Amino acid sequence: MSRKRWVVLALALLMIGLAWVGVLGARSGLVVRQIARSDVPLIYLAPQNQTRVPGVLIAHGFAGSKQLMLGYGHVLAHAGYGVMLWDFSGHGGSTLPQRDSLQADLQVAYEALVAQPEIDATRLALLGHSMGSGSVMTAGIQQADRFAATVAISPTGAKVTPESPRNLQLQAGSWEGGFIANAERLLDRAGGENENLAAGQGRSLVLIPKAEHITILFRQASHQAALRWLDATFGRQNSSLYIDRRMAWYGLHLLGWLLAMGAILPSFARSSPALSQISKFQVRSPIRRWGSLLVSALAASGTIPLLGGGKNLAALGGVQVGGAVALWFGIAGILWLGLLTQFPRPTLRALLLGLSVFALLWIGFGLMAQLVWLQWWLIPTRLALWPWLALGFLPWFLASGMAQQDISGGSRIVWWLGQSIALVIGIFLMLQFSPQLGFLYILLPLFPLFMALFAYVAALLNSTWGYALGCALFFGWAIAAAFPLAS
């Protein structure tokens, strides 16, 4: 490596080290316990050296995990609460098939919470997001004498009344209009705004500025609104100064890994011999590259509903929604390759390079995510899904690697934008024919972010197969990690 790359690598390692100090430092002063109870994986956080603290159950949403809710967990634990987070069946690290009712998992978490030595079982509250909001509101209604307060973030639905659940706070992001409407309907059914928390009749709706369904979970305004509501419920005066910055540290960690990859990968990646066998017209013609991309994306969107027929696409391949995503990429990728007419032969060196790219992406993206926002380690059932998901993504990334070969930096930005637009339009059209996959509407903004990551990898490599294999393995792992298992 050149001296410049050594300097970049040193800077990257410094950033990575600082990020780990920041993330691990967020646990300072806290008790952290990993618990498994009745096959439900749980995480418990509480302040050290304190007893008789109020307890809070924290529930994640669809395609979420206990890690995704750790921002609320850290804020509340540093403020003097004991919190229990868990994975619903079929989600995260749960080995259980998805149940028809979420309440059984919540009951397991409740029993684990009250069993902790720091908890005052007479002072309990609930907090949940999206799908989890329905579960916690239902628990607050069914066991109104058990839970003194409920915080429902991006709320779905429940049979709320002016009497139950007790002390209901509703939160919604200003950019998630449908959930704002849900929250307003719930508030109306619950009797409207009410400050009488002493009688358990408190009612409030909080709009979190510039937040949508996912980013609301990482907004300090949401964390603090929940904390203030619980403090008011339990009559606590709080002096905690903790602000959850773990996602910022995670971002620094990811940036450090990307810089490290930029210093390391070019030393191992050389021109692919097989690329020279493809004519400039076939690979570099703008009409062929852009036209084949658009046609393949649109054709895949119309083909999937026909292939699905009367079958439930949402549970395709044993993973909810994610299986249909892999199928869309697979069909679009095969069509794209067909329109490009040729592709380079794989070489052993390119395949080894692809495995190295996957390893670097896996560590950089996921290792810290396990502690911050995503259940990254795959249980055996999910691990078995990974190869076929990666295989579904491989044709797309192979065609994408061909189309991006040897283009300039400015053109690469244009290509990232064009590929992102084609993806979003293609998947949006698929959803018009397959409404059972509607959860993807929420995730559409994430596809351009992943494409930006992959465009960066393509810029570092001149190996179509190395790029395609590394990105397909990584994206397949991400889908296997994030989406719920089908029952």
From TrEMBL:
Transmembrane portions of the chain: 247-269, 290-308, 314-339, 351-373, 385-401, 413-433, 439-458, 465-486
Protein name, per record: Alpha/beta fold hydrolase
UniProt lineage: Bacteria, Bacillati, Cyanobacteriota, Cyanophyceae, Leptolyngbyales
Record SUPFAM superfamilies: alpha/beta-Hydrolases
Keyword list, A-Z: Hydrolase, Membrane, Transmembrane, Transmembrane helix
Domain named Serine aminopeptidase S33: residues: 56-158
GO molecular function (one): hydrolase activity
Organism: Trichocoleus desertorum GB2-A4
Pfam families, alphabetized: Hydrolase_4
